Amino acid sequence: MKDPVRIAITGGAGQISYSLIFRIAAGDMLGPDQPVILQLLEIPQAMEALNGVVMELNDCAFPLVHDIVASDDANVAFKDADFALLVGSRPRGPGMERKDLLEANAAIFSAQGRALNDYASRDVKVLVVGNPANTNALIASCNAPDLDAGQFTAMTRLDHNRALTQLAQQTGKHVNDVENLIIWGNHSATQYPDIAQCQVDGKPALELVERDWYENDFIPTVQQRGAAIIKARGASSAASAASAAIDHMRDWALGCDAVVSMAVPADGSYGIEEGIIYSFPVRCQGGHYAIVQGFDIDAFSREKMQATENELREERSAVAHLLG
Ligand code: NAX
């Protein structure tokens, strides 16, 4: 057996975590031969609920779980963490403006960035799930000057997975047949799910679907899927978000052949300027991700990529004073 790795998860008593933690404990993220130490963070008011989650984890008697730490202190929860999944965030309250939401979360993620900087493993891999995920990741990264900015990522894998299924269903194929689908930009309604370079079962996707379906059905369906789930379920995506978080971390840590979407620091690729965390096509190998270069960008795609970049720049401006 390998030595255990430490996995910090924030918002441990929330609904995503109720699926996420148990799947990680079962080995879905890092494999059936990788023991884990779970380090769960919550706010003080939710510690009793978190304790209930810990009781249930204990009752599962998971062979891979070596220890469980539950704390309301980020310095404790992030201590020596090899992986940090930042799920907890402040939801939008009644009468709260978008700017208030950004600010409330900026305060949380700047403090958590500092705690990661001071206490986590130097190789920690950070995934931000809590919204606004891209900008929260940027804030955490800016407050962690001793860590590499590339260690901070945000989740667009749920959008990617949603798009895979929409396209597979429309073409009568399986998600495994879909290659080179890309989510560009922000995890928000401005994201751009792009199938211009995508193949389904080896054939160009745009030859298999109507242009009208692509522009007026597929793109808005993927962009608005979170709202559609809330309408249907009466609660926001939880198990699917947890599954996407596991996909993101597993591929980053263990590698994968497919092109997947991850929100990572922009480095000038595809003309997206540095200073924001933007979703790109990536390949993962040997514990690292790399933005896949060389996809052609037509005028339609460029406009959509620019719109979501603009939104991320606006979010960044709103929290500029907290960027460390
Ligand atoms: P819940 O409200 O069920 O759980 C959030 C938990 O975080 C709560 O238990 C709360 O006490 C805790 N929390 C709040 N502030 C904290 C802090 N400073 N430190 C530690 N814990 C803290 O939300 P849930 O449905 O689990 O969703 C969590 C976040 O994921 C939300 O921001 C949500 O918007 C976001 N999502 C992101 C997605 C993505 O694709 N990136 C998709 C799913 C989801 O909507």
Describe this structure in words.
It is an enzyme of class 1 (oxidoreductase). Its EC number is 1.1.1.37. Pfam families: Ldh_1_C, Ldh_1_N. Substrate binds at residues 92, 98, 131, 162. The protein has 11 helices and 14 strands. By secondary structure, the chain is α/β, with parallel strands linked by helices. The chain starts with a strand and ends in a 6-residue tail after the last helix. 44% of the residues are buried. Ligand NAX binds next to helix 1. Ligand NAX is lined by residues 10-11, 13-17, 41-43, 46, 87-91, 108, 129-131, 133, 155, 158, 187, 226, 236-238, 241.
For the record, give the distance between the C-alpha atoms at the N and C termini, rounded to a whole number.
41 Å
**Strand-residue proportion:** 15-25%
Q: Major β-sheet, in short?
A: 6 strands, parallel
**Which residue ranges are poorly predicted, with pLDDT under 50 across at least 5 consecutive positions?**
none
The helix count comes to 11
On the 0 to 100 scale, the average pLDDT is 96
Structural class: alpha/beta
Which quaternary structure do these chains form? single chain
| Number of beta strands | 14
Shape: globular
From the alpha-carbon coordinates, what is the Rg to the nearest angstrom?
A: 19 Å
Bound heterogens, unique: ligand NAX
